[in-house]
Structures are given as structure tokens and as C-alpha cells.
Amino acid sequence: MKYIVVLGDGMADEPIEKLGGKTPLEYADTPMMDMLSKKSEIGIVHTIPDGMKPGSDTANLSVMGYNPEKYYSGRSPLEALSIGVDMKATDIAVRCNIVTLSDDDLPYEQKTIIDHSSGEISTEEAKILIDAVKKELETDEYKFYVGTSYRHLFIWDRGEVLDFVQPHDILTKVIGEYLPKQEVFREMMKKSYDILNSHPINVERAKKGLNKANSLWFWGAGTRPNLDSFESKNNKKGAMVSAVDLLKGIAVGAKMKVIDVEGADATLHTNYEGKARAGVNALLNDDFDFVYIHVEAPDEMGHQGSVENKIKAIEYLDQKVIKVVYEEMKKSGVDFRMAVLPDHPTPIACRTHTSTPVPYMIYDSINELDESWNYNEKEGRESGNYIAEGHTF
User: Fold this and answer.
1) What pLDDT, on the 0 to 100 scale, is given for residue 140?
2) Of 121, 154, 199, 381, whose Cβ has the fewest other Cβ atoms within 10 Å?
């Protein structure tokens, strides 16, 4: 038996009036999910433990069978694993976004945060900007590391875990009351704006009508993680297919194989089919038992508040990932079990994560069911199947 998780990050949502009271998952044209749901178990799973923040870090740990209450030590340390930063026990890792703040004459504290992802800036452009920041702000105590797109890493030697505000929680708001309380971090963020806003890359981005990547934003602090090996924990050899450092970092920490796919960039136009085929190849040709195929696009579209593009991301997931995996596994004749689910909701209405339980679907090639369900939030609840603790999923 082979095992596959297809994870549509942030795919769950709330009913939207302009969609006739449907969620994007209900509204989207998803013939593969519609077909599979008739043969599958569907239900609802609570991926975020009570009292914990609803993040992709805690939620994906849950889905992968790691109880966040036991294993979670912060988001950034997991990303550090992916980037290859060997954290000391005394290091604190901090997520360092390059964000878009309003380009106006107002004092820094009175600026508005427009975009947590700087228009999904390319890693190539972001590296140049991070290098410019490093030149001015890096010290023996504070180190910057390049990640992917807008997501980067800051290591604080002998620091402490501080409670920073997540930038995607305050989109369109004036930033003053959400800035770090510690003067050193506020000053670094202010100086980063002075360095970046008039940088040639941002001058060119503005000319093209793109969002400037004009300020650092610190969040997600934590200590060095300590995950049990996925294989020793489950007696299954696992692999991860994702374009996101967080997921790659979880895999590194769990001693899973990380599979990089050309053209996979965590955007709406990522290489969906390449990710699907890489996952199937790992199962059929590389002797892996379990593969986790993570797709970031629905979450990013939720943060952007784009109903149309979130629907499009779900439809791409259906046709370019789920269909490819299902058809290739069926063609192989190998028994398999495939789960489809989000990690958490990212509702269009609030443009950030929530802790609402999410719908799941489990298809088993040797135990096809005869049901009338469609896979979505509403029918998942109506099924009566409820998993209260996500890490038992």
C-alpha cells in the first residue's frame, strides 16, 4: 500500500455572497474531487490545537502526525532547517518577510501594510534586496539568510522568543500599534525601509506597476526544533514535494526526502503537474511508501483576497495534481490510499488563517465506497465524520 497526501494550503473558506453562498471549494469546477468523493470517506478534521495560532506550521505538523503541542518550537526554526542553517541551541530563528508598505511621506509608524508578499517577488530579486539589507544591518549578533520569494530568515544569537505580529493578519492596516515593542527590531525595520524603498529594483518594480518590496517584517520566532524521524515513527519511508521552505524544513527535521521540482514556486502558476509526477515517481520508482504533495497557491490567493484566483488555484489542484496522481497510480496497478485536504482555512473575508476544522477526503483504491457526497466544507460537516485531534488523522 502506498500513501499520498495532497494538501491544498488554505483551501477551506467560508460561504461568499457573490458565489451564491458557496465557498470557493463548493463553487469551483472540480470533476476529479467530485468523482472521488463518491468513492471516499469525507469528514472534518480539527488541525489546530486549542490555544495555538492557526498557522501552516502547526496545521501541517498535525496533518503529518506530529502533535504541535509536543513538537512545535516556532515557524522560523523549521524554515532554517530547509535553508540549511545549523542553529545553535542558543539561537532564535525569526521569519523575515519583505513586505510592501505604503510609499508616502508619512512617518514609518503611520504607513499602511499593503502586501505581505511584495507581489510574490522572485527569489532572484529578493536576494539582491536581502544582500543590501545585510550590508547595512548585519552584525555578529544578527544574521540574515535568503529563503524563497518574500520569505527569509533572521537568526538572533542568544536571543529570546518574542511575540511578533504576523504581517498577513494586518493587511490594509496602519502598522504603528503592530510593530515590535523592542526598539532594536523597530529600528531595523525602519532602516530597512530607507534602504529598500528607493533601491533600483523597487524603482523598476514601481515603473512596471508591481508592489515594491520595501520593508522587512519580523515574525514567527522560535528555538531549534526536535522532530522524531518520520520513518521510525510510522515505519514508512516518506518524501515531501513542496516549494515552501516551511514544509521542506518539516521534512528535513523528520528526516524525509525533500524533492525539488523545476518551476515549482509557490505561486498561482506553479508547476502543478511536475509536482504530481514527482510524487508518483517517488512512490513507484524510488521505493517511498508515503508522499506529501503540498500546494501553496490557494493560501496565497486567500491572503490576496482574490476569489477568482482562489477558485482557479483549486481547479488547478483538481486537474493538474489530483487527476494526475489518481490516473498514474491507477495505471500502475499499485494499491494506494490518497487523502485530500487543506491544512487550515484562509477565508477571503479576513485574508488570514482561522482555526475552523477543515474538510478531508480519503480515497482507498482497494475499498471504494458508494456514497453521494461532494467534497466541500458543508458536506464534510454533514457527513458526521469528525476527527478532533489533527495529529491522529
Assistant:
1) 95
2) 381
Range of the domain at 144: 91-222
Q: What value does the mean pLDDT of the chain take?
A: 96
Looking at the fold, whether 251 and 383 belong to one and the same domain comes out as yes
Predicted confidence (pLDDT) at residue 75 exceeds the cutoff of 90: no
Q: Is residue 83 part of a domain?
A: no
Q: How far apart are CA 30 and CA 183, in angstroms?
A: 50
Site of grid cell 521569519: 95
Q: Do both 66 and 115 map to the same domain?
A: no
Residue with cell 513586505: 99
Structure confidence by residue, pLDDT tens digits, 154-189:
999 999 999 999 999 999 999 999 999 999 999 999
Collect all residues with Cβ–Cβ distance below 8 Å to 212 and sequence separation of at least 6: 100, 103, 118, 196, 197, 202, 205, 206
Contact 47, 387 (CB under 8 A): no
Please tell me whether residues 203 and 321 are part of one structural domain. Answer: no
224, pLDDT greater than 90: no
| 223 vs 103: CA distance, rounded Å | 34
- Give pTM, 2 decimals: 0.86
Q: CA-CA distance, 74 to 157, in Å (whole number)?
A: 16
